[in-house]
Amino acid sequence: MTATSPWDEDDWNARTLAAYEQQAHRYREQTGDLPEHPWLERLAKDAPPGRILEVGSAHGREADALEARGRRVHRTDATLAFVEMQRAEGHAADVLNVLTDDIEGPYAAVLADAVFLHFRPGELRRVLAKLRTALAPGGLLAFSVKVGDGFEWSSHKLGVPRFFQYWQPGPLRAVVTDCGFDVVTLDVTEGTPWDWIRVVATPRRDASLPGSEHRAD
User: Fold this and answer.
1) What's the rounded Cα separation, in Å, for the pair 116 and 66?
2) Which residues contact 202 (CB under 8 A, 6 or more apart)?
3) Three-state SS sequence of 39-100
4) What does the alpha-carbon distance between residue 182 and residue 203 come to, in Å, rounded to a whole number?
5) From CA 196, how far away is CA 114, in angstroms rounded?
6) Structural domains in the chain?
7) Which DSSP category does 157 fall into?
8) Which of 59, 60, 74 is nearest to 23 (CA)?
9) What is the pLDDT along the chain (217 residues), one digit of tens a residue?
10) How far apart, in Å, do the first and last CA atoms of the chain sit?
């Protein structure tokens, strides 16, 4: 599905972040308990020793799950309202926009659950190239996106529009590989109303980061 944006392309991510700023507490209310899934268990167990960077921590349910499994998590979000929400509950959290900010590593792993689905393909390529350099040798990148075709602006859940880019497994695998990663697992799981693709990948040692040469599309 492809829809025309009501805003200039340069504003797309800013508009999505504004939606989260306005509706952070509603998002928390609308987001249920973390479902049991071997994905986080695998990340906690298989990532090398060291901190895990979580991109888009929101209200912290994935970070809580990883910490319960003995991992140290650097909680971050591009939405100040989420960062303040976590700080109010006693967690250390930082504002981080992976599209515009530098990322200091090395990290044992990077988790981005339901974050990259807000990025256009060219933006995803740039972010993947950036995260690759922030990972320690043998580190893991874990992220999830929704299954579908094209993109749309959707007011589902929050009542205000957010940008969503949809993916099919084959093209997504190709992008991850092109950006210097070896795919460890790529699973499609059922969801309501969308299915999800969950990826775990590790930096390819001989990669020359071709993904960083692509412009946003």
Assistant:
1) 20
2) 135, 138, 139, 140, 141, 181, 182, 184
3) HHHHHHHHCCCCCEEECCCCCCHHHHHHHHCCCCEEEEECCHHHHHHHHHCCCCEEECCCCC
4) 6
5) 9
6) 9-213 (3.40.50.150)
7) T
8) 59
9) 444 444 455 588 999 999 999 999 999 998 877 666 688 999 999 999 999 999 999 999 999 999 999 999 999 999 999 999 999 999 999 999 999 999 989 999 999 999 999 999 999 999 999 999 999 999 999 999 999 999 999 999 899 999 999 999 999 999 999 999 999 999 999 888 889 999 999 999 875 544 433 333 3
10) 16
E strand or H helix at 109, and its extent? strand 107-112
- The pTM is what? 0.90
CA angle, residues 126, 129, 130, in degrees to nearest 5:
85
**Cα(95)–Cα(113) distance, integer angstroms:** 16
DSSP 154: E
